[in-house]
Amino acid sequence: MTLPGAPHLARSGVELRLDGHPLAALAREHGTPLYVYSRAAMQESAAAYHRALQGRPHLVCYAMKANSSLAVLQTFVEAGCGFDIVSGGELERALAAGAAPDRIVFSGVGKTAAEMAQALRTGVRCFNVESRAELERLSQVAQGVGIRACISLRVNPDVDAGTHPYISTGLKGNKFGVAHGDAVAVYRRAAELPMIDVAGIDCHIGSQITQIAPYLDALDRVLDLVEAVEAAGIPLHHLDLGGGLGITYTDETPPRPDEMVTAMLGRIDARGHGHREILLEPGRSMVGNAGVLLTEVLYLKPGEGAGSKNFCIVDAAMNDLVRPAMYQAWMGIEPCVQRSEVPVTWDVVGPICESGDWLGRERPLAVHAGDVLAVLSAGAYSMAMAGNYNSRPRGAEVLIDGRDVHVIRERESVRSLFANERLLPRKA
Ligand code: LLP
Fold this sequence. Notes:
By secondary structure, the chain is of the alpha/beta class. The chain folds into two domains: 2-38 and 288-417, Lyase, Ornithine Decarboxylase, Chain A, domain 1; 107-282, Alpha-Beta Barrel (TIM Barrel), CATH 3.20.20. Helices cover 28% and strands 25% of the residues. Strands 5, 15, 16, 17, 18, 19, 20, 21 and 22 form a nine-stranded mixed sheet that branches. Strands 6-7-8-9-10-12-13-14 form an eight-stranded parallel barrel, surrounded by five helices. α6 links the parallel β9 and β10. α2 runs parallel beside α9, α5 crosses α6 (132-145) and α8 packs parallel to α9. The longest helix has 19 residues, at 213-231. 46% of the residues are buried. The structure holds ligand LLP. Ligand LLP binds next to α10 and α11. Ligand LLP is lined by residues 63, 66, 84, 107, 167, 204, 207-208, 242-245, 281-285, 323, 327, 381.
């Protein structure tokens, strides 16, 4: 029996397995907290995007903020993807994983001059410029290093992606992109600047989007602009349609990547823009349901008296997986070995000294101390957002590749957490 949205995850008998590998055994071998990924699931999601774009010039730029572990990036290099980066650090990581610079686009509202110079020297394909001020800075930096900068403007289409406010980016009130009404003027300015080459247009309206309609609304607004910019004598080569496609965490039914892309291409063709190269920046939908986070139950703390809660205290916490604490995100939690007992309702919480440190609330589970739980859909924005609060070393990561299981990140050592710190000089 496979689990919703995660075809590589299945329960066979009592055992939860990823690509046939029993998760409880992986936890025993590698310890917990442990992130476990399916390479095949990542390859399939990349292939779904490529299939939908087959026959037309395109580049699928995996938004590496979702999961930037080197072996994950390497998987996407081999799957023919480029990368969407948002920092000099991500640029270095992508290169370390074997990415070709001319398949990298650089997004983000706050690129520093040093990051711009680094990206120009590396030869990235395009800067997604998010403001007039950034355009002027990029122009100065390009002159300084003597390398021309290819740009697209990230435009803010002012559409509601219908998602959580923290991950909605295409509304007027968001910090992202150039306002729709200002875009033609900013393109005119870009066309005047000596070291800037206008290459395309870019739009990203948010994340965990589960419907096609907001994409089509944004696309219409973008195509209106393309027509206005070209009428002003500035040719645009590519359309970067961003990322944002949602995944199934519980009962969401997002379109599949190929459905979403096909709908967009239909609109693009109908409006006579079918000749343009298409860039995409998917993150979550490439990796989210390719991974789980394994955690061991440390203690059960049943509530006493009416109205009190039952707590299931596990060894993973908000530093390992911040999405529930940060966005009240619901992520599935499954025992790795199912018990035939009547489930009890538990709040699954971590050891961190904050009431916000929870992974799941009011979950019916049959668990005992020592059992291993899997937090589902943890391939995206989980390890990538992990931190060291409470001096907790970050967990290890393993990647399943068919019959093989590779450790792709060693568990962090506590020593490494304070290796860059210095004690004050001792008083004489
Ligand atoms: N392109 C740009 C410019 C972005 O800002 C993002 C995500 C993406 C692409 C990829 O979006 P995706 O396909 O992954 O939805 N930490 C949050 C999600 C933040 C998304 C930020 N931007 C979470 O855990 O839900």
